[in-house]
Amino acid sequence: MSRRILASLMYAIAVGWAFLAQPLEARDLALDALACVGGADSSAEALALGASELDCAEGRFARNDRFVRTHAEVPGGFATASTSLYWQTDPSNYQSMLVRFIYADGQQRLVDVDPQMAVRAWFARTRFSVPVPRSESPLEVVDVVFERPRTIATIRDTRLVTREEARKEHFFRSLTYALICGMLIAPIIFDFLFFRTLRFRFMIWHAAMTFGLLGFVVSNSGLIFQLFPNTPLGVRFQLNTLTLALAIAAAVGFILSLLEEGAVPKWLQRLTIALTALKIVTIIDLEPLRLVSHSAFLASVLPLALGVLGLIAVALFNESRAALYLLISFSGMIIGGVITLAISLGWYRPSYHVDDFLYAAMLLLVLGSSAAVGDRFMVLRVERDRARVNAVKLGRMALSDPLTGLGNRRAFDSVKRLENGQALLVADVDHFKAINDSEGHIVGDTVLRHMASLMRNSFENVEGSTI
């Protein structure tokens, strides 16, 4: 019953945090549904593409051209000429970017966006902001040319947002992400403090997993640019991948080391390790396959998630105590990974920001796994104390006579040296065989127990005596 209450409490905390982590969205206009896409070998050729040369069909964003252009017409009524706007996208990583704003009076403004501009104008939602130049006419068209984008999200996830509300959202989200990082740091400290006392391997895996999640939040949210303002955009993109890979590998190590011995078969453990190795291999980022590599990294989540679920399911079937905590802890991350994969493949477009869900899932993972560590810690400590008590009892049994409780021949032999003032006492009961023969062995046993009692009473006040 107590485990059910704990599970309910962890879910309540995670759900509550999910709501807290999602502030009111700024007024924005998603441009992906309005955009058509084309590819070329230079930025000039891309901007010169006519409407008939652009692709408006499903799957249009999955292009591997060196220069990719998106063309989106802004619907009338979204903003007036006096409205201050930001154009935003998920930067991930790219080589160069050219944004062209076309207004109703035919005026055009070009903004050249280098990768470090994305660093300087970072917006706390895995985005960066490009101020839309002011004009006396409303904005009608946004054309963007991306050079070597590393992910589909950079091309697809563009939007227009009002500046005032965007700043409010940026402030709130920055505080929220900082709070998440603080909550992730605490378990790492506790893991290392407890590891100094009880050196359980799963505590190191748990600390490594939490450290990986912390690194991912710091890099993905953009807090890294607050800590290290000159960090290159490409470094942040690689940190996203590496820290997430570290968290995943450590999570599998944590599960395997936390589960009780014999809870899952060896072949299933090896399969899960192999799927983890496959996931790590997909972090290799090759230029000719830049979009495919990132999709493969996300796609490898699915078989690994199934492997982890299978591992936990088998452990639950075998009545593993730790498996229930693991199921609760990893449920959010598994669901979040599948959602992220579905979004990257264009199968699903949620109305909420998926990173908010992932951060809430990370907190559930850390809270649940910390509870699992605490529970396993107590179980192993009780088992260790019980083993020590049993070892003492067995030692005493091996050196004492079961009938009288006095030391036996083995106890005598175990004495290697006598100090000054010490001696060994051997007592012989006269005519004891006659007592056994005439009165029986039950009476004889009673006599022996009585003699042992007399010896204890005789030596109980002698300092240092052992009976």
Which descriptors would you attach to this protein?
3 domains; Immunoglobulin-like; Rhopdopsin 7-helix transmembrane proteins; alpha+beta; 5-stranded antiparallel sheet; 16 helices; 57% helix
Chain-wise SSE layout:
Blueprint: H1 2-20, E1 28-30, E2 35-40, H2 43-47, E3 67-73, E4 85-89, E5 96-103, E6 108-113, H3 115-120, E7 122-123, E8 127-131, E9 139-147, H4 152-156, E10 159-162, H5 163-195, H6 201-221, H7 223-227, H8 233-258, H9 266-281, H10 290-299, H11 301-317, H12 321-344, H13 354-398, H14 409-413, H15 432-439, H16 441-459
Antiparallel strand pairs: 1-10, 2-3, 3-9, 4-8, 4-10, 5-6, 5-9, 7-8
Write up what this structure looks like:
The chain has three domains: 2-22 and 172-387, Rhopdopsin 7-helix transmembrane proteins (Up-down Bundle), CATH 1.20.1070; 32-157, Immunoglobulin-like, CATH 2.60.40; 400-405 and 426-467, no CATH class. It has 467 residues and is α+β, with helices and mostly antiparallel strands. It is rod-shaped. The strands form two sheets. The protein has a five-stranded antiparallel β-sheet. Strands 2-3-9-5-6 form a five-stranded antiparallel β-sheet. The chain is built from 16 helices and ten strands. The two termini are 47 Å apart.
Number of strands: 10
Rg calc:
35 Å
Classification by helices and strands: alpha+beta
Question: What is the count of DSSP helices, taking H or I runs of 4+ residues?
Answer: 16
Q: What count of domains describes the coordinates?
A: 3
CATH topology of the largest domain: Rhopdopsin 7-helix transmembrane proteins
Q: Which outline best applies?
A: rod-shaped
